[in-house]
Amino acid sequence: MRILVLIFLSATFFVSLAVDNLHFLYEEKNIAFYEDQNGFVLGISDEIIVKVENQKNIEFLQERFELKKIGQIAPNTYLLQTRSFIHTIEMVQLLKEYDYIEYVQPNFVKKIIYR
Amino acid sequence: MIKNTIFALLLAFFSGCSSGSGSDGQSLEDKNFTTDPLFFSQWYIYKDEEFYAQNLIDDNAHINLIPMLRNYSGKGVKVAIIDDGFDVDHIELHDAIVASYDIATNSSDVRHSNSTHYHGTAVAGIIGARKNGYGIEGIAYDADLILLKHTPNMSDAQTIQLFYKAVQLGADVINCSWGTGNVSLAVKDAIIDISTNAKNGQGIPIIFAVGNSNSYIGNDESSIDEVIAVGSTDKYNLRAWYSNYGESLDIVAPGGYYLGITTLDASSSDGVAIIDEDFLLFDDPNAFIGSSAAAPIVTGVVALLLEKDPSLSARQIEFILQNSADKIGSLVYVDSRNDFYGYGKLNAAKALAVEK
């Protein structure tokens, strides 16, 4: 059963990635690294960033999707932890359906380019 | 002779225009206004006739700061710099630092992680190297520096936290000589919030370097409308060939090519300088060149603007910089701008002469 769930999640995962034009590169320390359509490398961990409308709280989301709140990082903006990094894209797609969420995205890891 | 007379007239004009400036008789012939021995080689802010002639530098390659040097020094202005680490013991910097924070260790230790790192120190020197008779002068040599260290691989949440840390530490302006080329919604949202709403709605100007790949700016941090996006010029007072371009480019400033931007290196045996262990000289084989150098030149001038008028909003500062820039190069400016020079090249004297 567990394997079936994993297969299902992985399938969802890659369908989602196709939508976002990300190409899997490698995995390291529970961060999956992808290349986007412009050649930039993005890391996706088990963390997501969610911004909710003013006065809205995220308790419902936490309970409904078993998300752990890591902290608030900006006004109405929260850093949340999913069960595993393999759930991150799926979770982002699910949360996008909620009207009171202004945006949701993985907490991308990126390489800083000095100029 | 005619040239000197015209310059003297212009100098008097700008001194007269500037609020509270007052003429003190300073002229280009009067080199006593500085005791810093490397100042002559800071071609981006000062035209030393001999140095310019020897290095075949265009007469207008500098940012026209000299008429204002004695009037504004960035005193009382807090400049935040987000970069790879800093030589906090450098004799040119250690008196300037008022706060620091390292996102990776959640501590105030922002020293370079690697002995060959230098980038943050070089950027900080352009902005705030002290006027102390030792080496160079920063554009805002009395400004207070807030040093924020990031990591080579940053999560968006860490980037956002660093920006808000700068706000928490009292930053009046933020310099970013870096980018990812791939800014996300959350980072963009935070940058817009800070540049628009921080300081009780005044907004904090955020200056970004546009990059050095001679390519379209794209979805970079510097493409955000609310930031001041800075490209590079060279010693010929033209766009440096490597400087990125696009509709979000606001302004250009010296970033060097053929000649580097004289600034600090991590001192002693650290850093990358070959000629002078404490400084990256204009002719060092590892000279500091790029939009990373151009951005802090603009940031330094923003610090002077904020010293002159602390009530200026981020939007007003952007407007002043855009509308006081010199239209250099041969490309046509449509509605005052084009994609390779933005609104033109930074002119500090003109910017400081603008009244709100």
Features:
heterodimer, A: 115 residues, alpha+beta, Alpha-Beta Plaits, four-stranded antiparallel sheet, 38% strand, globular, B: 356 residues, alpha/beta, Rossmann fold, seven-stranded parallel sheet, 11 strands, 26% helix, disordered N terminus
User: Per DSSP, what share of the residues of chain A sits in E-state strands of 2 or more residues?
Assistant: 35-45%
The number of distinct structural domains of chain B comes to: 1
Q: How far apart are the termini of chain B?
A: 35 Å
Rg of chain A over CA atoms, rounded to whole Å, is 15 Å
Q: Helical proportion of chain A?
A: 25-40%
Class based on secondary structure composition and strand pairing of chain B? alpha/beta
The chain-level mean pLDDT of chain B equals 91
Strand order of the largest sheet of chain A: 1-2-3-8
CATH-defined topology of chain B: Rossmann fold
CATH fold annotation of chain A: Alpha-Beta Plaits
Count of the separate structural domains of chain A: 1
CATH architecture of chain B: 3-Layer(aba) Sandwich
* Unreliable runs of chain B: 1-29
Q: Count the strands of chain B?
A: 11
SS element count, helices of chain A: 3
Relative helix content of chain B: 25-40%
Order of helices and strands of chain A: HEEEEHEEHEEE
Q: How would you characterize the overall build of this protein?
A:
The complex is a heterodimer of chains A (115) and B (356). Chain A has 115 residues and is of the alpha+beta class. Chain A has a single domain (2-110), classed as 2-Layer Sandwich (Alpha-Beta Plaits). Helix content of chain A is 29%, strand content 38%. Chain A contains three helices and nine strands; from the N terminus they run αββββαββαβββ. Chain A has helices spanning 2-19, 59-65, 88-95; strands at 23-28, 31-35, 41-44, 47-52, 68-74, 77-81, 101-106, 109-111, 113-114. In chain A, the strands form two sheets. In chain A, strands 1-2-3-8 form a four-stranded antiparallel sheet, with no helix packed on it. Chain A has a four-stranded antiparallel sheet with strand order 5-6-4-7, covered by helices on one side. In chain A, β5 (68-74) and β6 (77-81) form a beta hairpin. The longest helix of chain A is centred in the first third of the chain and has 18 residues, at 2-19. Chain A starts with a helix and ends with a strand. The model of chain A is unreliable at 4-9 and 11-19 (pLDDT under 50). By secondary structure, chain B is of the alpha/beta class. Chain B has a single domain (37-353), classed as Peptidase S8/S53 domain (Rossmann fold, 3-Layer(aba) Sandwich). Chain B has eight helices and eleven strands. In chain B, α3 links the parallel β2 and β3 (144-149). The longest helix of chain B has 18 residues, at 291-308. Chain B is globular. The model of chain B is unreliable at 1-29 (pLDDT under 50). The A-B interface holds A 36, 38, 40, 42-43, 45, 47, 49, 51, 73-75, 77, 79, 103, 105, 107-115 and B 83-84, 119, 150-157, 160-161, 164, 177-182, 184-186, 189-190, 193, 209-212, 218-219, 290-292, 295. β8 of chain A pairs antiparallel with β4 of chain B.
